[in-house]
Specification:
By secondary structure, the chain is of the alpha/beta class. It folds into two domains: about 5-130, Rossmann fold, CATH 3.40.50.720; about 150-350, P-loop containing nucleotide triphosphate hydrolases (Rossmann fold, 3-Layer(aba) Sandwich), CATH 3.40.50. About 35% of the residues lie in helices and about 15% in strands. It has twelve helices and 14 strands. The protein has helices at about 35-40, 65-70, 90-100, 115-125, 165-175, 190-195, 210-215, 240-250, 275-290, 310-325, 335-345, 345-350; strands spanning about 5, 20, 45-50, 75-80, 105, 130, 150-155, 180-185, 225-230, 255-260, 265, 270-275, 295-300, 325-330. The strands form three sheets. It has a six-stranded parallel beta sheet, with helices on both faces. Helix 1 runs parallel beside helix 6 (about 190-195), helix 3 (about 90-100) runs parallel beside helix 4 (about 115-125) and helix 7 (about 210-215) crosses helix 8. It starts with a strand and ends with a helix. This is DUF1611 domain-containing protein. Pfam families: DUF1611, DUF1611_N.
Length: about 350
């Protein structure tokens, strides 16, 4: 073979499962969101985790590549989503070790695996696959702005990495449990790995962002719901463009604001304070009305993972009273989450 086997196919059936999750040397849990997302939502497809000095953990067994292969692993997934989506030079030796142990590499980073000479040469020599998930489809059109049939819910955030994907997955599952036709639509690399398809919105050329969102959530039957994974934040100094394209193209009937209480500044941007939930609701409605004049906020999803149960419950109730909206933590469920689902599906009884 003269070139490494490379693939951009994001269909789950074609990916080398089960996975060993690679955490690199990550110390910030939010930057390991791919590993946590797969562990939480596709744990049956993960045999363990491996790192080269990481201080975060998914709780899966710590395995070397050789040990993971002995347990049936077929692919190493880079479980990190750092700012800029790059693969540091200091990780290369570990990734080569994984290839030599018999694992294909799966990455959701912006940097392509085959563009790293050492990995390309090793994959060529061993006949291993280098699979890049963060690759948009060809032929994305410019958005039309035309209304499409079906119903849509979009999760939006006060910042990055605080629960938009988890909220969308939990809502889609809750809709289906109620007998509502619904699909989770993945817009980022982790969601694509979980769902088996989607479009990595932050890898799409800017002029085609809204068009990609239209493709992601096509016309459907009138009672069908697409629950769309949000990206970034309309207030983010770096990623707001992706958020706006996704908002305009998805044309949501309903949105849910996602927030992590206690976070004071944008993740990785200490000079930029967090917007309030009210500011996010107001701006989302004003911008979203451009393509869906009837857009409305169903409520708020709070990531209370750092709080004890009693403190979390008290905060959810207090924020619901303050905002006059359902406020829930989807991962805790309960009556608060039921109210959020009720509010999101309110449109079904209005049409």
């Amino acid at each position: 073979m003269d070139t490494p086997i490379s693939s951009t196919d994001a269909q789950v059936g074609s990916l080398p499962q089960p996975y060993l999750l690679f955490l690199g040397d990550t110390s910030e849990p939010a930057f390991a969101k791919t590993a946590f997302g797969l562990s939480d939502w596709a744990g049956d497809r993960c045999v363990g985790e491996w790192s080269c000095g990481a201080t975060v953990s998914t709780g899966l067994p710590l395995l070397t590549p050789g040990e993971a292969v002995a347990r049936g692993a077929r692919g190493l997934v880079i479980g990190v989503a750092n700012a800029g989506g790059f693969i540091p030079e200091r990780w290369i030796a570990a990734l080569i070790e994984a290839l030599e142990a018999g694992l294909d590499l799966v990455s959701g980073m912006h940097m392509r695996l085959a563009d790293i000479p050492q990995l390309a040469a090793t994959a060529t020599r061993l006949g291993r696959r280098l699979i890049d998930i963060r690759t948009p489809p060809h032929g994305i059109p410019v958005a039309s702005g035309r209304q499409r049939s079906g119903k849509r819910l979009l999760t939006v955030g006060t910042d990055c990495a605080l629960g938009k994907k988890y909220t969308a997955l939990a809502l889609a599952r809750a809709f289906v449990a109620r007998g509502v036709a619904a699909d989770f639509r993945a817009s980022g690399q982790t969601g694509i790995l979980i769902a088996g398809g989607g479009i990595p919105m932050d890898a799409v050329v800017a002029d085609f962002e809204a068009g990609a969102a239209e493709l992601l959530s096509p016309a459907a039957s009138p009672q069908h719901w697409d629950v769309i994974e949000g990206q970034g934040s309309l207030f983010h100094p770096a990623y707001a463009g992706v958020s706006l394209g996704l908002l305009h193209g998805s044309q949501p009937d309903v949105f849910v604001v996602c927030h992590e209480p206690g976070r004071r500044h944008m993740l990785g941007y200490p000079d930029f304070p967090m917007p309030s939930i009210e500011e996010v609701i107001d701006l989302t409605i004003r911008l979203g009305r451009r393509t869906n004049p009837l857009i409305r906020c169903a409520g708020v999803s709070l990531n209370t993972g750092k709080l004890e149960a009693d403190a979390a419950q008290a905060l959810l109730q207090a924020e619901s009273r303050r905002l006059g909206l359902p406020v829930a933590d989807p991962m805790r469920g309960g009556a608060a989450f039921k109210q959020l689902v009720d509010a999101a599906l309110q449109l079904s009884s209005d049409t």
